[in-house]
Amino acid sequence: MSSPTPTTTCLPASGTNVNKAHLPENALVLAPTRQLQSLLTIIRDEKTQRTSDRIIRLLVEEGLNHLPVVPKKVITPVGQEYEGVSFQGRICGVSIMRAGEAMEAGLRDCCRSVRIGKILIQRDEETFQPKLFYAKLPDDISQRFVLLLDPMLATGGSCLKAIEVLIDHGVQEEKILFLNLIASPEGIKNVCTRFPKLRLITAWVDEGLDSNSYIVPGLGDFGDR
Ligand code: URA
Where are the chain's structural domains? Predict the structure, then answer.
């Protein structure tokens, strides 16, 4: 008796997620590898309560690739000189509460003693505009590169406000790296056109937003996952 033909979906090892021609120059999307697509499938599944830690780790690793380095020579244990590099300047993380706090552990995994600040933005009940409710940032943040953390980029309202807060604290726009799990095309456009010198790194660009400003297909409310 012949065994049943397995039903597998053979994704290309690395395909395309978005048409890169439509992305602003300062937006970068992780390569849509099979690993990334399977991790995203797990966290999007309404039947699972799995965390997004591994994707966050991929984002942080990619973010670190965009920091400047300076030449550094070391002597190896066999007495040879090695001309390497070391990161130039200090970094810190800033999470947009509350969802962004879920990305702090991934940053700490890569950068053990990294300073992490927090920003809480909520909608003003009278003006319906995003309003700053709380900010705790490192005193010397203006001297640092900032990895801004928020997993879901929908309209971009909170993110834009958070970036304004960073710039008000003296952070240079070009020293901001915004790390994000799932983005809407609208959110990317809003953030990247308003702040053309920052860099946005996302794991995936979804189709758009529904009437409640949820990302679709998305993963629902990140806080519930
Ligand atoms: N925040 C979420 O948690 N989910 C969305 O889809 C959009 C914003």
Answer: 25-224
Mutation probe of ligand 1 site: the residue of 181, 222, 224, 225 with most atoms within 8 A of C-beta: 222
CATH architecture of 25-224: 3-Layer(aba) Sandwich (3.40)
Which ligand 1 atom is nearest residue 213's CA?
7
What is the per-residue pLDDT for 128?
84
Atom 5 (ligand 1) nearest CA: 214
Strand partners, 28: 201
**How many CA within 13 A on the CB side of residue 195?**
26
| Residues 148 and 118 sit within 8 Å (Cβ to Cβ) | no
- Alpha-carbon torsion 31, 37, 43, 46, what sign? positive
Residue stretches of the chain with pLDDT short of 50: 1
- The binding-site residues of ligand 1, defined as CB within 6 angstroms of any ligand atom, are 99, 152, 154, 214-215, 218, 221-222
DSSP tally for the chain: helices H, then strands E: 5, 12
Tens digit of pLDDT for each residue in 96-118? 999 999 999 999 999 999 999 99
Q: Is the ipTM of this complex over 0.90?
A: yes
Of the residues 46, 101, 123, 214, which should be mutated to test ligand 1's pocket, given the most ligand atoms within 8 Å of the CB? 214
DSSP-based three-state secondary structure for 86: strand
- What was the pLDDT predicted at 2? 52
pLDDT at site 18: 74
